[in-house]
Amino acid sequence: MNNGELAIALFEACRERGIMVATAESCTGGMIIAALTDIAGSSAVVDRGFITYSNEAKMDMLGVSAATLDAHGAVSRETAIEMAAGALSRSRAGLTLAVTGIAGPGGGSAEKPVGLVWFSVGLAGQTVTAERQLFADKGRAFIRRETVRHALELGLRALGQHQADGATP
């Protein structure tokens, strides 16, 4: 599925479950929430998008701790988890998707190369989860587009894992 189809699938899954979604985005700059709000009627499931490109925005808007940013950096598992948790606590959403990464072309290092993205999913009443992806360095647009795709897939997976019958899609 392309990103538009994934967004529609996530929209439908949220609507069926009666939950709202919020995003906490750094490297995508709002592309995930934009994919969702491109859908007519998206106000039924979209609560808000936090665009937290700077560390200050992550702290002010999502409650990411300065200690976390100092110890682990903006592009880290710990920061992604605090972003998703902060979006849950600062919205009406039952599902949050957080992304923080290095889209390039610069800004990478041996430890954190261009294409590294940390994802985190918050689902109300569940433990916030995180995962790391390293996308090929095929340019900024490619990395950002793949980040949106993966975030939408993670949202679908999170909802599928919590169906009443326990089945996964």
TrEMBL record:
This is Damage-inducible protein CinA. It comes from Rhizobium loti (Mesorhizobium loti). InterPro entries: CinA-like_C, CinA_C. Residues 6-154 form the CinA C-terminal domain. NCBIfam families: PncC_domain (TIGR00199). Signal peptide: none annotated.
